[in-house]
Amino acid sequence: MKLDEVYRKTKSELKRAGVDSPAFDAMCLFEFVFGLDRHGLIMNGGSEAEQSKADKLLKLTDRRCSGEPLQYLIEKWEFMGRAYEVGYGVLIPREDTCAVVDAALSAARKMLKSRDSLKIADLCSGSGAIAITLAKELPCEVSAVELYDDAYSYLQKNIKSLKAENVIPVKADIFSCYEDFADSSLDIIISNPPYIKSEEMKTLQREVLREPREALDGGEDGYRFYRRIIKDWSKKLSPTGAICFELGEGQYEKVERLLLEQGYTDIGCVRDIQEIQRCIYGYKK
């Protein structure tokens, strides 16, 4: 079978299975197995496909058709210009999260007008996409806090592969490890916490349901992590420090009230590409 025939067969199988973007997914899987991008396929499509690689692609295609996330199959995913290793047990980085990173970068650059470096805590760090992005863009030290073994393993791998020496992985529970941080020691607290209501978990897309439940389930009302982080971690911020959260759709007003109750000021939002209020930020009074 020729390379272009292998690609077309992959795309056809994905389309028949109802995959949302069969051409894109087929190209990603093809490139992962054969090492050829779209241009390479055009230039070499008439060449004979190596049978062992064709068989591997077929198996991956079957797994994608059954609902396994594309990102887990190709083992990496890009976030803000960097490729992160991902797999079962870690949340896949999403474009939505750019909003909370942008908010933190904006706050940080204001702070750096009057100091040389910052201390940041990224809570529920997962793959480390947020922590590493900030560490690469700013003069700072980032404590990346992650509890679960699988996610922590990917966090460590990504810190190493992306050479983010100023990210410190911390394997701990955010509901208790705040005691290990000195009061007023952090300039920025950032988090993309679990925020989906427990009862809504079963309604998620089949691909999302393959991601770790502990990274998605925000408790009965979806606000469990926001309440606890704001309550327990706020005293760890410096007097002019900032807090930044990713939000689920429709959660802005409730989290805004939680921040106001804790004395935060200059509260605002950053919208994602769909104009959803995807991030909320506020400054310590």
Structure characteristics:
two-stranded antiparallel sheet, elongated, alpha/beta, 2 domains, Rossmann fold, 285 residues
What is shown here, in short?
With 285 residues, the chain is α/β, with parallel strands linked by helices. It is built from ten helices and nine strands.
Number of strands: 9
Q: Which topology of the largest domain does CATH recognise?
A: Rossmann fold
- Helicity range: 25-40%
The number of helical segments is 10
Q: Uncertain regions: pLDDT < 50 for 5+ in a row?
A: none
Counting structural domains, the number is 2
Shape type: elongated
Largest sheet: 7 strands, mixed
Structural class: alpha/beta
CATH architecture annotation name of the largest domain: 3-Layer(aba) Sandwich
Order of helices and strands: HHHHHEEHEHEHEEHEHEE
- As laid out across the biggest beta sheet, the strand order is 5-4-3-6-7-9-8
- Report the mean per-residue pLDDT as an integer: 96
